[in-house]
Amino acid sequence: MEKIIFISFPRTNNLLLVRFLKFLFKDDFCSQYHNCGTVPCTCNPQKKLSKTFDFELDIPITDDNFYMYIENEDKIKNIEYYFHFWLFVNNIHEKNYSKYNDKIQNIIQYYDKLHKKYSTKKSNILHVYSQDFEKNPQETLNKVFLFLKPVISIEKIQETKEYINELSFHNYVAKKSENDLYDYIKNFMNQQHSE
């Protein structure tokens, strides 16, 4: 059975896409937050869609599955949002970011590998940016619909389109950067390239 693997870089602003996919797949949706989070789903192998971050980068890309990858189009923001979340989870409030350069470097390496893995030009991989949903939500969702068409019924797609039309897209505005953290990561990355 064909599976759909939804991969996102952590803390990507993908709430609209997640709501859309949850509505579309209902009980066939397995999330790393609310279910087993394994790929493919082990709590119910019949589930069609699994949501993951692919932290170990060990999910194989096969021809019989479909892969959707979402990230922020600004690499630095990807790093910033994830690092900021890591600070929050670890209850770190200080602004001396240089103490955590190793963590930032690990996040950059993870991003580079994940981006490279899912940015290939294969017909069963859809790569979208979170900003696409802000700039052109209907067009982007139509792209997702077309991508999912081989595995989803036309009736289900139409039902989901009606649901999406009821959502107000302005509720899905991107997170704001923290300028000092954004600038710190930008400078850190520039130093890495110049060495």
General description of the model:
With 195 residues, the protein is an alpha/beta fold. The chain has one domain: Rossmann fold. Helix content is 47%, strand content 11%. A 5-stranded parallel beta sheet has the order 2-3-1-4-5. Helix 2 packs across helix 3 and helix 2 packs across helix 7. The longest helix is centred in the middle third of the chain and has 18 residues. The protein is elongated, with a radius of gyration of 18 Å. The protein starts with a strand and ends with a helix.
Short account of what is shown:
This protein has 195 residues and is of the alpha/beta class. It has 7 helices and 5 strands.
Number of helices: 7
- The topology string of helices and strands comes to EHEEEHHEHHHH
- DSSP, total strands: 5
Query: What class, by secondary structure content?
Result: alpha/beta
Q: What is the strand arrangement across the widest sheet?
A: 2-3-1-4-5
Mean pLDDT: 80
CATH topology term: Rossmann fold
Query: What global shape is seen?
Result: elongated
Distance between the termini: 48 Å
| Gyration radius, in Å | 18 Å
Strand content: 5-15%
Q: Keyphrases for this structure?
A:
alpha/beta; 195 residues; 7 helices
Task: Summarize the topology.
Layout: E1 4-8, H1 15-25, E2 29-30, E3 49-52, E4 66-71, H2 75-89, H3 101-118, E5 125-129, H4 130-135, H5 137-148, H6 154-166, H7 179-194
Parallel strand pairs: 1-3, 1-4, 2-3, 4-5
